[in-house]
Amino acid sequence: MRLHLHTLLAVSLQHPGPAARHVHPPRMHMPRPAPSGGITAKEAADAHLASLGYGPGGRTEAMRPKVGAPMPEGRRPDWFHVPAPGGANTRFADLKESLEKTAHEGKPRLATVCEEAQCPNIGECWNGGTATIMLLGDTCTRGCKFCAVKTDAAPEPPDEEEPWNTADAVTQWGVDYIVLTSVDRDDLPDGGAAHFAQTVGLLKLRKPSLRVECLVSDFQGDLKSVAMLAQSGLDVYAHNIETVERLQPFVRDKRASYKQSLSVLKEAKRLGELPGAQRVYTKSSIMLGLGETEAEILQTMHDLRQVGVDVLTLGQYLRPTDHHLAVVDYVTPERFEYYRQQGEAMGFRYVASGPMVRSSYKAGELFMAAMMDRDRSEAEIKEPSWNPALAI
């Protein structure tokens, strides 16, 4: 399980500071049709990068990441440097204070993935009004080799009051868009799906206009659990495939698999397209820098698109401790830009691709909200208006 990729509560606060009040929604990146005349999307993207001065590249030799293996030579590239969070009178400080206040009032402190995973984007996201909070505790039943979350075969039972406490906190903060995530809970019969569904229901009951994204595990492939959550009223069903098919057994826990992740995403999308069902957007994420080849990355992107995934994020894998998989490659920003273009050509509604991109990320959530607004407006325009004269 990848902590910042699993069940969290990403909250977009409604109290922007002076510098944030004039921020416009992100530009809509519409999928581009595949080039005609025998030119492949890859060739077109390579040509575009070349026109900008970027040379073609990408790993062609397949490698396997290992714990304890040497890291890439030299210092970590400077594109990973981010400003330190915090400071007086910042939204980061306000959000941290509000989390502490909850604990002081005698309620369990909501656990943010941002803090637990030591996410490098915490300053940008919290100052921009986004935070991510875990449900179902902080202990995972799986042991993926890239994740630093605590693991145990028998974690503490879920807090039965957590759905209500979460809804209370979100209502008080004032939010437009939240992301619920969690650790894997294979010890629970439904993997925690009912806990999620209850939280979604309470949030929607208190604020029907709230957009809810759930970034969840694969529920061990249990499609009944997938259905329970997909039909709970959520807006975005997110599950991360994490890496390419060849590297799955070396990167993820043995209970996870490439085909299982694809089947979960496919089922969530199918359920959201049934007649009369609420529309469900699907989303996934891939880590780069673990020894995957360019061809494998493109194949994984293709496979995700084939099961209807709408939104894709690609980011750099960073080793959390010396006891986790070593980084094989630091993928350049130019290559991330190349994969973004590839994804748009494949038909993804939106692709966020960059070294510091994570699946729960402020910019992506802003785009998702804008995309849902536009889709809803278009649907209303297409619906025929009721004409009283025809009812006589």
UniProtKB/TrEMBL annotation:
Its EC number is 2.8.1.8. One of its GO terms (cellular component) is mitochondrion. [4Fe-4S] cluster 1 binds at residues 114, 119, 125, 360. Binds 2 [4Fe-4S] clusters per subunit. One cluster is coordinated with 3 cysteines and an exchangeable S-adenosyl-L-methionine. Its main location: mitochondrion. Residues 21-30 have a biased composition (Basic residues). Pathway: Protein modification; protein lipoylation via endogenous pathway; protein N(6)-(lipoyl)lysine from octanoyl-[acyl-carrier-protein]: step 2/2. Its cofactor is [4Fe-4S] cluster. Coiled coil: none annotated. Transmembrane segments: none annotated. [4Fe-4S] cluster 2 binds at residues 140, 144, 147. It catalyses: [[Fe-S] cluster scaffold protein carrying a second [4Fe-4S](2+) cluster] + N(6)-octanoyl-L-lysyl-[protein] + 2 oxidized [2Fe-2S]-[ferredoxin] + 2 S-adenosyl-L-methionine + 4 H(+) = [[Fe-S] cluster scaffold protein] + N(6)-[(R)-dihydrolipoyl]-L-lysyl-[protein] + 4 Fe(3+) + 2 hydrogen sulfide + 2 5'-deoxyadenosine + 2 L-methionine + 2 reduced [2Fe-2S]-[ferredoxin]. It is an enzyme of class 2 (transferase). It is found in: Mitochondrion. Keywords: 4Fe-4S, Iron, Iron-sulfur, Metal-binding, Mitochondrion, S-adenosyl-L-methionine, Transferase. GO terms for biological process: protein lipoylation. Residues 16-39 are annotated as: Disordered. GO terms for molecular function: 4 iron, 4 sulfur cluster binding; lipoate synthase activity; metal ion binding. Residues 126-349 form the Radical SAM core domain. The keyword Iron applies. InterPro entries: Aldolase_TIM, Elp3/MiaA/NifB-like_rSAM, Lipoyl_synth, rSAM, rSAM_sf. PANTHER family: LIPOYL SYNTHASE, LIPOYL SYNTHASE, MITOCHONDRIAL. Belongs to the radical SAM superfamily. Lipoyl synthase family. This is Lipoyl synthase, mitochondrial.
